[in-house]
Write a structure and sequence with these properties.
heterodimer, A: alpha+beta, Helix Hairpins, Immunoglobulin-like, 2 domains, 5-stranded mixed beta sheet, 3 helices, 28% helix, elongated, B: mainly alpha, Cytochrome C Oxidase, Chain A, two-stranded antiparallel ribbon, 16 helices, 60% helix, 1% strand, disordered N terminus
């Protein structure tokens, strides 16, 4: 993993939808800086110009300051623009324009204290049923061994392998408490709410090895609930999928986790 | 309680009013401990809150060691805190989470709110409206004596098996539902503290509506009183949902209910034996329905103090007084419909998120107006840079930073990236620490002479201000960069992440800033006690101010005013043309 990409500002964006978020963030911060500096200059000027000193007196009559009305109007206009011109369209587009499931890679994520369990549907494209009562040491998701759809499912812990340039839909849930799925370079964040399954999507624009972090306090191991996001070329991804797919004849055991936590 | 009884009190303003009660001298415990006098209760609240503010800050100063130097033994005190909390002097992650949850809880519910509302509200409001006391003095006493046991229970929870609450000050279930016993104690203490606030809020509303002096119409009230009135409504209407939610969480923890627990939870590989069927998001809605108005409970009294101090030290009327009042009222209303902007990442539908995004942008407008009014109040002034004025002046840019950085968090698209990062920590601390707390310090320096009859030392005060001002910006400014780098909050060891290692140098800087800020407070603590005995004695109106509290002796006796005050004019009549004085108090007929 390249440590150098992480500095004191936004890390590089490797997602399709992230550019708009970064653009909004940049417009926002320029706007904030402009307001603060303009306002700050006037503030410092007032403090200096109107400091108490011999022979100086305060003005009783309030100054007629039309400028304040213009400035407040300006702030209002900019906020309306930020709201309806930038933020809302970006958010609505991201939330509503979910990619075509038939073209996307579909992954399930079940978070737990303090690990990320990913389930890939395998060749049949169908997730095997899961059942809380089946959860055990080598079956962190509780895959039902009787369900044929689950026989080719692939389960990984703390490793999210995804192909580049292909939309990925992740159905996010949790076994125990609320976590938050956070991949800074993909500009993705979604709380994992136990009892709910919430889809998020993203499409990576370049291969690489990045970090998955938990963003919501989830207990004493919150700080080490770290995962790896491995964005691979389609060939690498297909190879990884083939190498790690459970052997078809192995009947009872569901997919073995790729690695132990 | 008649004001007339006090006509025999010292009229020279050197105020020993509370010693003039020859006919019914109260025993010590009725006068200073179980007192029904709003001033004593106000001081009790203020002192308790100041103690907890420093305590809560100390917890954070310990956490800052772990953040700056992860895994290294805490010097000096590391070995004193027991092997469970600090094995080998190194902070355990559980203990880190306890300190974090308790820092937030203590600073908000046992520090800032009790100082702003219980302290300043109680002490100043009756004086500013010319009332002899609060409307319900016994209720007022009950409020403090429910509050204090709540605080003691909260702090005592550190000694429970498993330690204090450790699920954040927000206590999100299911984590909080399955946390050790400390969480039950947290909830219990919260119920007490909320009850105390409710008792207080009713009292403030009735007092302000019913007990204003003759001539004191609503448009003649000092801005501070308007701010307290709105605050009281927020407390009254916002706290009950959290009280209900706290009781529900207690039930989940001790009575086997599942208000916040869905079916099928598996914790540490074992199915959780609960009925299920609940929803963890219900808690978040109830919690934030309180906790967003709570933000305005923190900020409105602070704005009130800033208004008083600015008017007094610019020696001119506040610019846009009515606009300020309209803004503060609209802030109060709007604060009830923005809560779910804390929950944009929970997967809510786009209709709901758009609604809350719009309300959040709307609420920023009155804040901008208030800030504009304050800065325009400086224009044309004759500004005295007294210690209270320094703190009030610094409030303006600090609150501006806090407010502006709320924008990217209130907009859903940018919140995707910034939610739950250090950017959030930087944002709300700028609002609450160099914002609200600086305003509260301005209030302490401003009204200390009224409460004690003596002035705080100005030199020590200025040292306190400048050190605090510099240090606090070293603490919170770098957090925006950490947040932009994507660093999550509440991490025991941020260096686990590559993007955390990228900003680790800032953690060292922040920690040293925090310890410096801690040292700076010693100047205040020394000043506070030293001035009780050594401070310069003052008459009733040391700041040449215009509002009613300055008509009473310093300190005011029981019943406050020597003669019943009558109000003749608006609250901030400074530098009226043609007058010999640059201030025309509300209470003087001739001005």
């Amino acid at each position: 993993m390249d440590e150098k990409i992480y500095g004191w500002w936004l890390p590089p964006d490797v997602s399709v939808h992230g550019a708009k978020i970064d653009q909004l963030m940049s417009v926002l911060h320029w706007f904030m800086a402009l307001l603060f500096i303009g306002w700050g200059i006037f503030f410092v000027y007032c403090l200096f110009r109107f400091r108490a000193r011999p022979g100086h007196a305060a003005l009783y009559t309030p100054v007629k300051a039309l400028a304040t009305k213009y400035i407040e109007g300006f702030v209002l206009v900019v906020e309306v623009f930020l709201l309806f011109g930038l933020s809302t369209p970006v958010w609505l587009a991201y939330k509503n324009d979910v990619p075509d499931p038939s073209k996307a890679l579909h992954v399930r994520l079940v978070a737990e204290q303090f690990a990320w369990n990913f389930q890939y549907p395998g060749k049949d494209g169908k997730f095997g049923k899961t059942d809380a009562s089946q959860i055990g040491g080598d079956n962190p998701l509780g895959l039902d061994p009787e369900d044929p759809a689950g026989k080719d499912d692939l389960v990984t812990v703390n490793n999210l392998h995804i192909p580049v340039h292909r939309p990925v839909i992740v159905d996010i849930s949790s076994k125990d408490v609320i976590h938050s799925f956070n991949v800074p370079v993909l500009r993705v964040k979604q709380d994992t709410i136990p009892g709910q399954q919430i889809p998020v999507w993203f499409e990576a624009t370049q291969p690489g090895h990045f970090e998955l972090a938990c963003a919501q306090l989830c207990g004493l191991g919150h700080y080490r609930m770290r995962g790896d996001v491995l964005i691979e070329t389609p060939e690498e991804f297909a190879k990884w999928e083939a190498e790690n797919a459970p052997p078809p004849q192995e009947a009872p055991a569901a997919a073995a986790p790729e690695e132990k936590k | 309680m008649s004001v007339k009884q006090h006509t025999a009190a010292t009229g020279n303003g050197h105020g020993h009013g509370n010693q003039d009660h020859g006919h019914h001298e109260l025993p010590f415990w009725r006068k200073y401990i179980f007192s029904v006098d709003h001033k004593v209760i106000g001081i009790q609240y203020a002192v308790t809150a100041l103690v907890f503010l420093f305590f809560g800050f100390s917890l954070m100063m310990m956490m800052r060691w772990q953040l700056a130097y992860p895994g290294q033994p805490l010097p000096l005190i590391g070995n004193l805190l027991g092997e469970t909390a600090m094995p080998g002097g190194v902070m355990a992650p559980e203990f880190y989470n306890q300190l974090g949850a308790m820092h937030g809880t203590i600073m908000v519910f046992m520090g800032v709110v009790p100082l702003a509302v219980g302290g300043f509200g109680n002490f100043v409001v009756p004086l500013q409206i010319g009332a002899p006391d609060m409307a319900f003095p016994r209720l007022n006493m009950a409020s403090y004596w429910v509050f204090l046991p709540g605080c003691i229970a909260m702090v005592a929870s550190f000694f429970l098996p498993g330690g204090a609450a450790q699920s954040g000050w927000t206590s999100y279930p299911p984590l909080a539902d399955i946390a050790p016993t400390g969480q039950t104690m947290w909830l219990f203490a919260m119920v007490l503290i909320i009850t105390s606030s409710l008792l207080g809020s009713i009292n403030f509303i009735v007092t302000i509506v019913q007990m204003r002096a003759k001539g004191l119409s609503f448009w003649r009230l000092p801005f501070f009183v308007h701010a307290q009135l709105v605050t009281a409504f927020l407390l009254l209407l916002a706290f009950p949902p959290l009280e209900a939610a706290s009781v529900m969480q207690i039930m989940d923890r001790v009575a086997g209910t599942s208000f916040f627990l869905p079916t099928g939870l598996v914790v540490s590989g074992e199915p959780l034996k609960v009925a299920g069927g609940g929803n963890p998001l219900l808690w978040q809605h109830l919690f934030w329905f309180l906790a967003h108005p709570e933000v305005y409970v923190l900020i409105l009294p602070a704005m009130g103090i800033v208004a008083e101090v600015i008017a007094n030290n610019t020696r001119k009327p506040l610019w846009g007084y009515r606009l300020l009042v309209y803004s503060v009222v609209s802030l109060g209303f709007m604060s009830f419909v923005v809560w779910a902007h804390h929950m944009f990442m929970t997967g809510m539908g786009t209709t709901m998120s758009t609604f809350f995004q719009i309300t959040t942008m709307i609420i920023s407008i009155p804040s901008v107006v208030i800030l504009t009014c304050f800065i325009m109040s400086l224009y044309g002034g004759n500004i005295r840079f007294t210690t209270p004025m320094l703190f009030a002046t610094a409030f303006l840019p600090m609150f501006a930073i806090g407010g502006l950085t709320g924008l990217p968090l209130g907009l859903t698209a940018s919140d995707i990236y910034l939610h739950d990062t250090f950017y959030v920590i930087g944002h709300f601390h700028y609002v609450v620490a160099p914002g609200t707390l600086f305003a509260l310090f301005a209030g302490v320096y401003y009204w200390y002479p009224k409460a004690t009859g003596r002035q705080l030392n100005e030199k020590l005060g200025k040292v306190h201000f400048w050190l605090s001002f510099v240090a606090i910006n070293f603490v919170f400014m770098p957090m925006f960069f950490q947040g932009m780098a994507g660093l999550s909050r509440r991490l025991y060891d941020p260096t686990v992440y590559a993007h955390g290692r990228g900003v680790q140098a800032l953690n060292v800087l922040i920690s040293w800033g925090a310890w410096g800020l801690g040292l700076a407070q010693l100047f205040f603590i020394v000043n506070f006690f030293l001035s009780l005995k050594k401070g310069a004695r003052v008459a009733e109106n040391p700041w040449n101010a215009t509002t009613l509290e300055w008509a009473a002796p310093s300190p005011p006796g029981h019943g406050n005013f020597i003669t019943e005050p009558v109000v003749y004019r608006e609250p901030y009549e400074y530098s009226v043309p043609g007058k010999s004085n640059d201030y025309s108090p509300q209470f003087r007929a001739e001005g």
